[in-house]
Amino acid sequence: MRQKYQQIFKLNSKKIVSLAVIVALYVLLSWISKLINLSIFPSAPFLKIELTDFIFLMALKIIGLFYTLFITVVVSWLRILYLGDSPIDVFALMLADLVFIILFWGLIFLFNKIIKNQKNSKKIEYLTLSCALVLATVAVSFVMAFFNWLFILPMYGAFMNYPPEVITWFKGILIPILVPFNLIKFGINGIFFVMIYRAVVIIAEQYHHRQFNRTGKTFPVYSIPDFSEELYC
């Protein structure tokens, strides 16, 4: 067990390069998203869709939970430097991403335990993946609405001097606008991740140097137990 966790947290040159690539990809896509300025609610133009969350799902498969959470925190705060986001905006975005990642990983882990004796197949793996993404998307949408009501919006009032009537207006759009926005945002990223999932698994296979087994067959590309192995990496 100790050796296993040492392997999880071990930082080698390959992992450092992977972290750098993930950071670069996130910076590029978030910058492009800002240029596109995809706002879907005219009454809340500050809510913009970004095709960046699928990167964290990719990272989860390749480098594991711990370093995915670490990289999420890092790239979130970097937004202050290259996008000019406010600290509270960054905090809210980071919190949403962290909640989504943890929920998705937890659901995958749970599903793996439930169906661990089932025969692996593409159908089962895609079903598990899709169910986890749907449930995580719905959950994070309502969790973030609650967090906004509980402490994020009061932070805007306390630290950015938003008047009480503005905070009241924000609270009024949490359910009718913020929840649908997060459903759409994380839903789009989830769909994109499913579309590229096979490529992600192949990359993960190469990253971890999976070898042929003694029967001459390769490690299955679609392997349910592989999701939660070593914290999903």
UniProtKB/TrEMBL annotation:
The keyword Signal does not apply. The keyword Transmembrane helix applies. GO terms for cellular component: plasma membrane. Pfam families: ECF_trnsprt (PF12822). Keywords: Cell membrane, Membrane, Transmembrane, Transmembrane helix, Transport. One of its GO terms (molecular function) is riboflavin transmembrane transporter activity. It is found in: Cell membrane. Its main location: membrane. It is a multi-pass membrane protein. The chain crosses the membrane at residues 16-33, 54-78, 90-112, 124-153, 173-200. Belongs to the prokaryotic riboflavin transporter (P-RFT) (TC 2.A.87) family. PANTHER family: RIBOFLAVIN TRANSPORTER RIBU. This is Riboflavin transporter. It comes from Spiroplasma syrphidicola EA-1.
